[in-house]
Amino acid sequence: MPTHDSSDLVAFCPHGELLYLSNLTLRTCPAMSSAISAKAPGAGRSTGKRRKDNTSDGESREDVKHSRKGMPLTATKAKSPSSSTTAGNAPEKSNDENKEPVETRLFIKKVSGGEDERRALVEGILRDRMAECSDDEKYYEAKNDLYRFQDDQFEQEEEDPEIDSVEYEVVIKTAATGVNVGHVKFVVVDLADSEFHDFWSVFQYHSPVMHRFLDVFAEEDPVYYRGSYEGGRSDGPLLKIDVQSAGTKCWSRHEFTSNSKDPLVYILELIVKDEWRGRGIGTQVYETLSSLKACRGAKYFFAEPGPIDRMPKGESMKDWIMRGRRIRAFHRQVGFRRIGNSHFFARAVDAQHPSGAIKPENDAGYVPVGDMPEAKRKATVYAYA
Is 189 in contact with 164 (CB distance < 8 Å)? Predict the structure, then answer.
C-alpha cells in the first residue's frame, strides 16, 4: 500500500507492508488518542509452509477496469452528537473545539478484477519470461507462447482458480455538500465455486499483505476438502490450532471458511483527510460496509491495523510505535478483535458473536514468534499491542 505521510491525509485502515506487516493505517486526533488506551496481553502464532512470497509492494498488478464514477452506494447517519450545528453551503471545517459528527455517503470510484485483469497479469508473466531468456531458441519459444495466449490458444500448466476476487475503491463524501473527505479500499473474495486450494491462490497472488494473511490458516489439515468434521463444517482451510487457542480464543477454527457462499472481505485501506478527523467518519464507514451490495452476506471483515511504513519516516521510533497502538485501539473501538496473537484482526457483523463480549481493553496482544532476547521481546509486544 502506498505510504501516506502528507498532512492532508489520515489513514484509518489497512494495506501495505510495515515493519511487522500491515494493512491499516490510522492517525487519531488528540482527543481520541487520550480517550483510547491500548493495553493487551497475548500468546504466539506460527508460520505456514506455503511457497515463498518473492513479490514486493512495487510489483502489484496494474489497476484495471470498470470505473463507475459518481455512483452512490448508501448513506449512513452519524451518531447523535452532544452538541450540533446545521450544515451550510460552504465546505464543513472542523477544529479542535468543534468536531461534530457528520453524515457521509459512499460512491464507487473504481472496481478492479475479473477476466481482463487476469489476462493482463498472465501476459505480463509471459513477457517477463521473454525478457529473461538467455538464448534465441528460448526467446522465440517464449514469444510463441505469448502470441498463442493472445490468440486464446495457450494452455497453462495449472488451471485458473475458480474464484472471484474484486477490489473496490470507494470515495467518502459529506451528505450535505458532497465534499470529498476520504476513501476506502477493500477486496471481496467469492469462494462459491472454488476448490479448497483456490483459497490459497487468491491470497498468494493478490499482494504481499494478503499473502501474509494466510499465516493464520492451516495449510496441512485433515479437512483437505469440503466436508463435515467433528465440531463443524468447512469449505476452506481452518485456523491453525495454535492461532485459535491463543489470545482470547473468540474465533473458532472453522467459522471464517465454514460456508463458501459467504464472501470474505479484506479491508485494504481507509483514509480520512486530516481536517475531517475525529468526526466519526471511520466508524460510519465500518458500520456501513456490510450493507453495501458488494459485501452483502459477509459475516466478517478482516484487517491488519498498523502504520503503512515499515520503519519510521519523518517521525521518531516512539511516535511511530504510538501511532500504531492508536490505530489498533481505534479498530478495537469499532469492533475488531485480534485473531489469536497474530497481526490480523477480524470484525464480526453479528452483534451477538462472542467477540462482541470482549471489551477493547481486554483484547489479545501480539506475541512474537521465534527466539529473541527478552528485552527485545518485551519491546515488540509493547509496540504491536
Answer: yes
DSSP 16-58: S--SS---BB----HHHHHH--------------SPP----GG
> What's the rounded Cα separation, in Å, for the pair 225 and 196?
6
Total-model pTM: 0.64
pLDDT digits (tens, 9 = 90+) for 241-272: 899 999 999 999 888 887 777 888 999 988 89
* Distance from C-alpha of 182 to C-alpha of 276, rounded to nearest angstrom: 9
H or E stretch at 148:
helix 136-150
The length of the chain in residues reads: 385
Which CA distances in Å does 283 have to 6, 76, 272, 299, 312? 22, 10, 11, 18, 26
Can you give the residue ranges of every domain in the chain? 9-77+102-113+163-383
CA 44, 17, 271, 73: dihedral to nearest 10 degrees? Answer: -90
For residue 224, give the 3-state DSSP assignment: coil
Write out pLDDT tens, residues 70-80: 444 443 433 33
Classified as helix, coil or strand, 234 is strand
Contact 158, 72 (CB under 8 A): no
Per residue in 212-247, pLDDT tens?
Answer: 898 898 876 554 444 555 555 566 788 898 999 999
Neighbours of 13 (CB within 10 A): 29
Say which residues have a Cβ less than 8 Å from residue 12's Cβ, sequence separation at least 6.
24, 25, 26, 182, 270, 271, 272, 281, 282, 285, 327, 330
